[in-house]
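This is your field. Have a critical look at the following sequence-structure pair:

***
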Amino acid sequence: MTRLLLALLLVLALPLGAARPQRVVSQAVGTDELLLALADPAQIAALSHIAQDARFSPVAAEAKRFPTIRESDAESVLRFRPDLVLATTFTRPETLSLLRRAGVHLVVLDRFDTLEDVYASLQLLGRELGQEARAEALIAQSRSRAAALAARLRGVKPVRVLSATIYPFTSGTGTTFQDLCDHAGALNVAAEAGLRGHAPTPSERLLLWNAEVLVVSDDPGVQARLGEIPHYRALPAFRAGRLVPVPGAMMSSLSHHRIAAYEVLARALHPDRFR
């Protein structure tokens, strides 16, 4: 009788609607990263259509175990009959609108710029997935890893860096690149010059920024392609070959996987701290 009463009290103590979602669809590569880190495999119905592309996804190898949606449209998502859809503010508004009209439980992540934003996303998705303990454990591990890197870099002189891409913009404040600089002993010269977000590259001003190092994607041939762009070709850092390649999927990560990019850049800029 006592055991029956205790069991009944435990059931009554559970919050209504506490059942874990069983068919979760992730609509973006950033939410793929978080979902794979937190969910039980059986909870994952499908990942984004680029989840398995290592150029953009730091979880490409793991993602191969799961189905992917064909595109990012609502129809591709709904064919998996989800009870939870994960998206971001990068998702097309019409897709979000159609998913809401279909009555799907939708979580839209809208903060990406800093590691603290990542921790907030992990806590939110931990609650949504019924995986709060797993989320808190991952946050603790990530904090410890970031703190260890900060201890190695304590007192270093920041190296002046510029994000150099084949696209006609560079990264200022309020970007994942700024977050990368903040954790890797680097000074983002575009932010120092007042640029916010992903802004058009002011080619005529780049020489005045005195960038010591160009941070680039590790895509094959990127250095040759940058050499075709006059304003990069004219920079002393480019002519001296002071380029640091960082895996693009890590550098743009919206999850805890970005810490690997911090470590790659920090080792390249401050090798003496890693001997």
